[in-house]
Amino acid sequence: MIKKILFTVVFLVLFSPLFAQTYITNVTIADVEKQKLVPNQTVIITNDLISKIQSGKIKIPTNAIVIDGKGKYLLPGLTDAHVHFFQNGGLYARPDVINLSSEFPYEKEMKLAHETMEDKLRRYLQNGITNVIDVGASYSYLKQRESFKNKDFAPSIYMTGPLLTTYEPKAYENLKDEEPFSLVKNVDDGIKMVQEQLPHHPDFIKIWYIAGADGLETEASARKNLPIIKAIIEEAHKNNLKVAVHATERITAQLAVENGCDYLVHSVEDEIIKDDFVQLLKKNKTILCPTLVVYNGYENTFGQKLQMSNHELQAADPFQLGSLLDLKHLSDTLLVNKYKRRIDSEKEIARINKVNAITSENLKKLSDAGVLIATGTDAGNIGTLHASSYLNELIAMQKSGMNNWKIIQASTINGAKILNKENEFGTISVGKKANLILLDANPVDNIENVSKIYRVINNGVVFNPESIIEETPIALVQRQLNAYNFRNIEAFLEPYADDVEIYNYPDKLIEKGKAEMRKNYAAMFEKVPNLHCELMGRIVQGNTVIDKERVQFGKEIVEAVAIYHIENNKIKKVYFID
Length: 578
Ligand SMILES: [Zn+2]
What we know:
The chain is of the alpha/beta class. Helix content is about 35%, strand content about 25%. The strands form 4 sheets. Strands 1, 2, 3, 4, 5, 15, 16 and 17 form an 8-stranded mixed β-sheet that branches. Strands 10-9-11-12-13-14 form a 6-stranded parallel β-sheet, with helices on one face. The model is unreliable at about 15 (pLDDT under 50). Zinc ion binds near residues 84 and 135. Zinc ion binds near residues 82, 136 and 378.
């Protein structure tokens, strides 16, 4: 080993042009463990590692990349500790929750999830998330993630195989390598299925500990299945694999932790936890991921009362985001109304408010007691979009009463601890991976500043976040369509050029410039009720996108064709044909 290190050092010194060095000078570092900001530091990155941190004057080699960190804040790269790559986050992600296969077949959705995995990874990196933990994948995703190893644009991916469960929703049966669940009927099954996962190299094992699906009371059901849960945990540990458990009731969570669960992937949501539960988690060093925003995603989508921040409208996959509004025009109005009525019922609203109040109070209790909390979104579920929903989760954690330093710890070092990777990443220390984000503003003052990213550094490679995802004509047009439907004037104007021209086809100029557009559209967004634009068809030809639109405009319905011309990554001209 020493020989190898010596050789490496000699090699690096002799062949210095071959290794890349980056100097981030005069920067304020967030020491997430000590919860303090350290100003005026220079951080030196050699290849993919942090090789030195020092204050004061420093001599910089001529061939090094230099980033002036003055006035900026350096944070370890973030971790989203609960995502699902097999789910896209849009309306068609969960056939077991709402079956819309007549509108969009689930086979197509599954294919799309694979095709957009690279896009999802790029979005995570763009948002400063350099590590993602998929706590419920399938064999095909364990395979696909291999293709992203050593790709600079991809965060580090940690992943389980299919969820081991005593209950499987019908919609997911017989999907072979795509199946996100493995049904376990008894203790022998449990052991066998852990072993079956081993050749697929999961980073850990996930259990879906569902109580009550067998018709029994929660506690009786939980205890009945306990021997299976216990056997899975033991077999996983025997093979040096940690175990994550989905357990949303206090009893299932408690039984799981008492029997060796390492990571609880959700909050306890059925009761306010007591001190003995808090102490149990503390004693066992169990990490808990609260996933606060995921229910709201469902509730607001089905209730058709979604709100999207400018950040989400800009950072999310625009097609998945757009699909969340499809309920406004789908032909199966019977089904759509059934979901809307259910979500809008007094009983359901009361239930959701109660769950939110309990999870929020439980989080504060655990965090105050020093239980390790890890930030995770459950992204991929309907209404919880990959990467862009992370900021919402941070804001929800803050509303529960966690302070910003604790939220920063939950989003960095605690995420690394889930898989004992705290010596590899999660803090800014010599020898750790150079996975970092350089922020324009202080995240301790305002947690939302983690989205003000100047540079992302992944495996030592420096990225301007704007360059991580290639802009396309179709994405520009889709973003303005989404913002139109959300009546968000800032997000609506973002894809347009400052000197945009709007014509009635073929050549009658009706508007010129963003200022004029702002005036007209802002007034319309404010005044017109029931505004909704449905895309009936789309043709993309080079820098031109032609949309056939059906617009609900108050009581009127207008059909039109819009031709968008894109220049220099902005919409420069629009022609409307009535
Ligand atoms: Zn999940």
